[in-house]
Each structure stands twice: as C-alpha cells, then as structure tokens.
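debug: dumping io for the single-chain case to check the tokenizer round-trip. Nothing else runs in this session.
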Amino acid sequence: MRLHQKQPVLAAGCLLLGACVNSAGPGPVTASAPVAEPVFTEQGILAGATGKEIDFQRAEPGAIAAMSKLMGSAPASTAGACPGLRAARWPDGTTLFFETRPFDPPAFIGWQHGGQSAGRVCAS
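debug: decoded output
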C-alpha cells in the first residue's frame, strides 16, 4: 500500500485522537477546608493536634503542599523575597521563607504570621 492510499486512514486516526484530547486543560485549583489549625513554633509549624509538623529545612514543594492543607488554600504568591530567599504568601499575610540551595529545592527556614516570626525572614 502506498502512502497516498494510507492518507485517509491516517487523517481519520488524527481526527479521532483529537476528539479524545481535552483542550480545556485542568480546572482551577479551589480552596478546601483546612485539615488542622497551624501552630507556629520556634522550630517550624505544627499541624494542630495531629502530631505532624513542618520542620525548618524541609524542601519548598513539600512545605508549601503541607501548609496549603493547613491553610485550606494554596499561597496567593510564591516568588523571590529578599536576597537569597523566596517567600510563599497566603492571603491572610502568613508567609513561609525558603533559602535557595545550589543542587536541591529551596529549604524552609522561617515564617511570619501576624506580628510574630521565627527562623530567618526578610527584614521589614
């Protein structure tokens, strides 16, 4: 069978494949109910009475995922903060700070919540 004879089959296959693809992409991330009340400490953040914690030095992706569950939403922004630090900020002002590292994801090194803070944070 020559190529010109296969073209109708190829075109039909492409149309079928195109119909199976969802061009709308994933839906928006929605807020969920917080799983526990965050307890801010000198060593990091406790997840209420669950016994779990977000310790300083935890990698940024895991720390943000865990904090998002506690807050009931993802951070409003995640970006550079002050030299060498990144910050994830939630709408209520809660901020987690991360120190960039050469070969690993940035590490959680400090937090600000209300008028309190612990660890290394950017100067106000």
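debug: round-trip ok. The first helix runs from residue 3 to 20.
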